Amino acid sequence: MIPVVVRNCVEEARNVVRLVLGSQDGSALPPYEAGAHIDLHLPSGLIRQYSLCRMQSDPQYYEIAVLKDSLSRGGSREVHTLNIGDELNISAPRNHFSLAKTKRKALLIAGGIGVTPLLPMAQQLHKMGLPFEFHYCAKSPDTAAFAKALESGSFSDKMHFHYSQVPTSGRMDVVNVLSQNAMDGELYVCGPADFITHIIQQAENLGWPDERVHREYFTAPDLAEGDVDNTAFKVKIASTGELLDVAEDQTIFQVLESNGVFVPVSCESGVCGTCQTGVISGTPDHRDVFLTDKEHTEGKLIMPCCSRSKSPVIELDL
Fold first, then answer.
1. Number of domains in the chain
2. Three-class SS of residue 284?
3. What is the pLDDT averaged over residues 101-122?
4. Which residues, in sequence order, are CB contacts of 79 under 8 Å at separation 6+?
5. H helices then E strands: how many in the chain?
6. Which keywords are on file for this protein (predicted)?
7. What are the tens digits of pLDDT across the range 223-263?
8. Does the pLDDT of residue 289 top 60, yes or no?
9. Which CATH number covers residue 18?
10. Which of 60, 90, 120 is the last residue of a domain?
11. Same domain, 113 and 205
């Protein structure tokens, strides 16, 4: 837990606020690489994950930008009530969405507030002199956070803006953009769940290798009716051999917690990766969007906050 103070609040776009968080004593905050996020511990007790939206120009400050979501469970609405001088706690930065260690051209595709982790990626790529192309999709310029700065910034020649509600702009031609980079690119996509799913599906259709497609969800996609079939099963704790019953209406995490088995959990929807746990035996029923398709197929990891078991017993490395 790192104590910070809200040093500034800036309206970056309609319903988007940027917060500048500074260390309470003026000391340097832990460094991070592009794509990192922090846990924000809100006064109400809610914990939410937000991407760090700029590379640090001063080591005592972090910046996040938060969209007030109409479907918010309370976190984004509370962030928008914060004021300069409010004291909060945050986690150290974690990064599950880092740039690949390659000199391939990077294709950055942002949907709305999904621009936040991609902006520092662009800053880092520009600083390193590596090739990249940045496509920013939004409804209109007034809903696109950082758009004006990106239009006139140091890598404005790499920017492409696609506004679905502006007739002279229109939606991005996904197939065309992906086709031009399929043979030698690294794809990074972030935005609404359905947006990411569509981009990834098109990339798969065009032959993009899974290991060159990188994504970060802020929320899990909605499961279609009929896709969810919850059945009861047992969880075995490898260190003790204890068997615990997981009912149809319970998650693995809930059962572990009620029986005194600690697993760190944050998002509770399979997005952030905090609760990632090893699987010793059994077949996971993956409900997360954090693990890759390859990791899902291998079945060696599970997100107990949301995923279940296809086998009568699943043994976890706990």
1. 3
2. strand
3. 96
4. 17, 19, 40, 42, 48, 50, 66, 68
5. 7, 18
6. 2Fe-2S, Dioxygenase, Flavoprotein, FMN, Iron, Iron-sulfur, Metal-binding, Oxidoreductase
7. 544 456 789 999 999 999 999 999 999 999 999 999 999 99
8. yes
9. 2.40.30.10
10. 90
11. yes
Q: How many CB atoms lie within 10 A of CB 176?
A: 8
Quick one: pLDDT at residue 120? 97
Arithmetic mean of pLDDT, 130-138: 97
In angstroms, what CA-CA distances link 139 with 142, 161, 165, 169?
Answer: 8, 10, 5, 10
| Of 36, 35, 23, residue with least CA distance to 89 | 23
| pLDDT, mean over the chain | 92
**CA-based end-to-end distance of the chain:** 24
Tell me the whole-structure pTM to 2 decimals: 0.83
Cα–Cα distances in angstroms (integers) from residue 92 to residues 10, 23, 89, 272, 282, in the given order: 23, 12, 10, 14, 34
- 270 domain-assigned: yes
Other beta carbons within 10 Å of 150: 21
Give yes or no: residues 179 and 255 share one domain.
Answer: no
Three-class SS state of 302: strand
At 72 the pLDDT is 67
Contact indicator for 317, 261 with CB cutoff of 8 Å = no
62 pLDDT more than 90 = yes
Please indicate, yes or no, if residue 228 is contained in any of the structural domains: no
